[in-house]
TrEMBL record:
GO terms for biological process: phospholipase C-activating G protein-coupled receptor signaling pathway. SUPFAM superfamilies: NAD kinase/diacylglycerol kinase-like. This is Diacylglycerol kinase 1. Keywords: ATP-binding, Kinase, Metal-binding, Nucleotide-binding, Transferase, Zinc, Zinc-finger. It comes from the Eukaryota. The keyword Isomerase does not apply. It comes from Jatropha curcas. The lineage of its organism: Eukaryota, Viridiplantae, Streptophyta, Embryophyta, Tracheophyta. One of its GO terms (molecular function) is zinc ion binding.
Amino acid sequence: VALDIHNLREENPEKFYNQFMSKVLYAREGARSIMDRTFADFPWQVRVEVDGVDIEVPEDAEGVLVANIGSYMGGVDLWQNEDESYDNFDPQSMHDKILEVVSISGTWHLGKLQVGLSRARRLAQGQSIKIQLLAPLPVQIDGEPWFQQPCTLAVSHHGQAFMLKRAAEEPLGHAAAIITDVLENAETNHVINASQKRALLQEMALRLT
């Protein structure tokens, strides 16, 4: 859908004269994708390897996503650290140099993800991701789509940068931000688990209010 919209914008920029029309056109292409199930053969057109291990792509998958942060499409949490039904996976963290791989089952699934009615399917975690395309397929990196011929895409952690953010104006807000960061690091380093982190955050919230 993103590639179709990108091509349409390149060919007919006058149609994208305001945000509302852009959303209408995006919805139209999304509805067409849902009806056509354009990528129903996707599981047999790709091979995924994580740290040298072949990963099975679910038969209902129509896309595979590789992420390093907990936010996608303007705030969707793909990995959902609070979900404890995946005992064999670690919490997602942007600090650990580990990438997360999930699958989605089409445009309708993406729509439900965005409004919190569904979740992505966890596939793997690792430092070296290889995705082999056995057929021409659309690919997107950070919002930039293109049509890719058969190849092998290699994804790995490249580097880290220190980022500045505005400190909370109120002392309590600043303290809460520090506590949250400490607990997230503790969870990443397996000092505490997700349930303990959640309980501690709730207790801190009560004490700081």
